[in-house]
Automatic annotation (TrEMBL):
Domain of life: Bacteria
GO molecular function list: GTP binding; GTPase activity; signal recognition particle binding
Name of the protein: Signal recognition particle receptor FtsY
Organism: Rothia terrae
Class of the enzyme per the UniProt entry, highest EC level: hydrolase
Function, in words: Involved in targeting and insertion of nascent membrane proteins into the cytoplasmic membrane. Acts as a receptor for the complex formed by the signal recognition particle (SRP) and the ribosome-nascent chain (RNC).
Full protein stretch here: 66 to 362 of 362
Length: 297
């Protein structure tokens, strides 16, 4: 909460300052909309929010700052959408482990997220197994294994570079089933050289894995600091595989928390987790109310 507040203050404080002016005229509303856009909220949600606030100020006939702040809070919460199901499907059924695929462009924080999430699950006494299906960069498997060692979880990886990512994923699930683990997490490659290649690779991973066990969660990792550009890449992933949840990383490094809303609107998938730093404990479930509170308190 405190860390979210730090990252988001700009948006909330800016809006409150605007709406606390003596007279709330059209110029103020334009500035409010501008502030929302600057915070990466996206144009449609920004417009919706301004229109809702504008009509409430008119209908309720008040410009009292405390009251307007309350309206802002309520309208922000609506665009963040507190009713989305943000629970993670980490458990399997029928003797199968839960299968979590983690996808996204290189450098967004996939491996780090797998490590952090593994740590949380270990703390909850879950048995798990990691799979290094990013076989294109040798360093990627090393990095995942380092995280695994750090949190006390084993990593399945290929001995040689350039192995088939799908076969590593398959081996991981098979091994996970044999061991009877609760959850298997697969870290995938994020080379976005062309959509067809990506589609082939992710599609094959999913197909092959599902021969062994149903995939319970596909997490798309997005770097919050890349703003609207990150969204373009996100859309490509969403086209090639059914995403069930978003992990928004590096929220500690941006004041543009509005990207949460833009992503959910564009992809129609809830933000489930947020990354708030590079350390093992810097992962938190996304909480709509806490997020909005952090914005404006
Ligand atoms: P991958 O290529 O998608 O697997 O990305 P990595 O997990 O290797 O992360 C890339 C870089 O981003 C690393 O330096 C991480 O420490 C850093 N990183 C990951 N998540 C966060 C986060 O939430 N906040 C910050 N500040 N850095 C992060």
């Amino acid at each position: 909460r405190e860390r979210l507040a730090r990252s988001n203050n700009m948006l909330g404080k800016g809006l409150l300052a605007l709406l606390s002016r003596d007279k709330i005229d059209q110029d103020v509303w334009d500035e409010v909309e501008e502030t929302l856009l600057m915070a990466d909220l996206g144009s449609e949600p920004s417009m919706r929010l301004v229109e809702a606030l504008q009509s409430r100020v008119r209908v309720e006939g008040t410009e009292d700052p405390a009251h307007v702040k309350q309206m802002l809070r309520e309208e922000l919460l609506k665009v963040v959408n507190p009713d989305l199901d943000r629970s993670l499907k980490l458990d399997g059924a029928d003797g199968n482990p839960g299968v979590v695929l983690v996808v996204g462009v290189n450098g967004v924080g996939k491996t780090t997220t797998v490590g952090k999430l593994a740590r949380v699950m270990v703390a909850e006494d879950k048995q798990l197994l990691l799979g290094a299906a990013d076989t294109f960069r040798a360093a990627a498997a090393d990095q995942l294994q380092t995280w695994g060692n750090r949190v006390g979880v084993e990593t399945v990886r290929s001995e040689k570079d350039g192995a088939d990512p799908a076969s590593v994923a398959f081996e991981t699930i098979k091994e996970g089933k044999q061991r009877g683990v609760d959850t298997v997490m697969i870290d995938t490659a994020g080379r976005l050289q062309n959509k067809a290649g990506l589609m082939d690779q992710l599609g094959k991973i999913k197909r092959v894995v599902e021969k062994e066990a149903p995939v319970t969660e596909v997490l798309l990792v997005i770097d919050a600091t890349t703003g609207q550009n990150g969204m373009v890449q996100a859309k490509v992933f969403a086209e090639v595989v059914d995403i069930t949840g978003i992990v928004l990383t590096k929220l500690d490094g941006t004041a543009k928390g509005g990207i949460v809303v833009a992503i959910q609107e564009t992809l129609g998938v809830p933000v489930k987790l947020v990354g708030l730093g590079e350390g093992p404990d810097d992962l938190a479930p996304f909480d709509a109310e806490g997020f909005v509170d952090a914005l404006i308190d």
